[in-house]
């Protein structure tokens, strides 16, 4: 039977996703009608991203699942009109990109690259040789698809990686913690802390003044997770006292980051414009096709969001 798949992501995503989705549907053997417009009661599956045309899901009475294009779901999970299952994006390309970005930014701070790259002024600064990764502790907050992969990549470089998640994980090469005590232990040891948590009621402002104060003096914060994980005012204060040595931030409470925001001009802040990684259409289309195949075969969907937990 033909299933109707509504592409309800913003218009400018269509060009990138149309061909990969059609190819993936054909390769998966799905008989799908991929459309950008349909009578709501005719739609079986919805490919979704925030900023599209659909805000009210109630008219979509036949909807079997909403398949989110992005990993983060904070913009849809609180939508009370959505009662169909919601799957988030887990995409090998997205994960690979995040591993590269996190590894690059961690190595920048670990090796103190700025001191040498920015000091090309004819002055021979007899600096110190960076320590080995084995003598540096990284804190990975969030040990899901992205945090787990980034933590393992850093562990393969010999970093001492301590991780923290809601549930106690067992990941080869990582010292995994959970709970409030676990967070304290990770924060008090982490010279570089990476935030790869989803934004939920429980994680908003997780990095507040008290938690930032637990970090070793001069620690670096790398945030490719979500802006509101950090209390901005507390971070700015900690940068000014030297409690935080540098913050590399890819995500912000307001995006684009407003031109007047103090992060832009702060000498100890690196701003990147939410480019840590993104869903890659070709591999992501295969994930979406596989979920539709599963839905039609009566098999459990992959990567379902726990709406009560918010991620
Ligand atoms: N900047 C970018 O370009 C970009 C790109 C993609 C994604 N992201 C962000 O990265 C986030 C993580 O993605 P993901 O695919 O790795 O998500 P995920 O697989 O759902 O993993 C989330 C991790 O956070 C942990 N967690 C959630 N709530 C927690 C809490 N209250 N206390 C402690 N740990 C908690 C989870 O613990 P459990 O393992 O116990 O469930 C899990 O380990 C996304 O939500 C998104 O915001 C950013």
* Radius of gyration of CA atoms, rounded to a whole number: 21 Å
H/E element order: EHEEEEHHEHEEHEHEHEHEH
In DSSP terms, counting alpha (H) and pi (I) runs of 4 or more, how many helices? 9
Class of secondary structure makeup: alpha/beta
Say which molecules are bound, naming each kind only once.
Answer: NADP nicotinamide-adenine-dinucleotide phosphate
| Quaternary organisation of the protein chains | single chain
Measure the end-to-end span. 32 Å
Low-confidence stretches: none
- Average per-residue pLDDT, rounded, comes to 97
Relative strand content:
15-25%
Instruction: Tell me the major beta sheet.
Output: 7 strands, parallel
The total of beta strands comes to 12
Task: List the keywords.
alpha/beta; 311 residues; 32% helix; elongated; 7-stranded parallel beta sheet; binds NADP nicotinamide-adenine-dinucleotide phosphate; 12 strands
Can you describe what's shown?
It is a single chain. This protein has 311 residues and is of the alpha/beta class. The protein is built from 9 helices and 12 strands. Strands 8-7-6-9-10-11-12 form a 7-stranded parallel β-sheet, with helices on both faces. Strands 2-1-3-4-5 form a 5-stranded parallel β-sheet, with helices on one face. It binds NADP nicotinamide-adenine-dinucleotide phosphate. Residues 71-72, 94, 142-147, 165-167, 196-200, 202-203, 224-226, 250-251, 274, 276-278, 311 line the site of NADP nicotinamide-adenine-dinucleotide phosphate. NADP nicotinamide-adenine-dinucleotide phosphate is lined by residues 71-72, 94, 142-147, 165-167, 196-200, 202-203, 224-226, 250-251, 274, 276-278, 311.
């Amino acid at each position: 039977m033909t299933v109707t798949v509504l592409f309800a992501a913003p218009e400018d995503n269509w060009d990138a996703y149309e061909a990969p989705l059609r190819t993936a549907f054909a390769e998966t053997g799905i008989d799908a009608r991929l459309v950008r417009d349909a009578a709501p009661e005719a739609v079986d599956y919805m490919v979704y991203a925030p900023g599209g045309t659909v805000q009210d899901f109630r008219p979509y009475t036949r909807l079997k699942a909403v398949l989110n294009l992005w990993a983060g779901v904070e913009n849809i999970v609180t939508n009370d009109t959505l009662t169909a299952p919601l799957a988030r994006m887990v995409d090998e390309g997205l994960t690979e990109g995040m591993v590269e970005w996190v590894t690059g930014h961690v190595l920048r701070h670990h090796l103190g690259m700025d001191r040498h790259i920015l000091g090309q002024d004819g002055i021979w600064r007899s600096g110190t040789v960076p320590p080995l990764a084995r003598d540096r502790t990284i804190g990975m907050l969030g040990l899901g698809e992205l945090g787990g992969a980034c933590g393992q990549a850093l562990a393969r470089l010999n970093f001492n990686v301590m991780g923290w998640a809601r549930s106690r994980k067992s990941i080869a090469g990582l010292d995994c913690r959970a709970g409030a005590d676990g967070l304290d232990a990770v924060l008090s040891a982490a010279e570089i802390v990476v935030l790869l948590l989803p934004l939920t009621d429980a994680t908003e402002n997780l990095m507040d003044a008290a938690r930032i104060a637990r970090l070793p003096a001069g620690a670096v914060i790398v945030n490719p997770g979500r802006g509101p994980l950090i209390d901005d005012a507390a971070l700015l204060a900690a940068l000014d006292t030297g409690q935080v040595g540098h913050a590399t931030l890819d995500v912000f409470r307001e995006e684009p980051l407003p031109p007047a925001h103090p992060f832009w001009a702060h000498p100890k802040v690196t701003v990147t414009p939410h480019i840590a990684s993104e869903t890659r259409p070709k591999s992501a289309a295969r994930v979406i096709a596989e979920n539709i195949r599963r839905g039609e075969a009566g098999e459990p969907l992959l990567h379902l969001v726990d709406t009560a937990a918010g991620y």
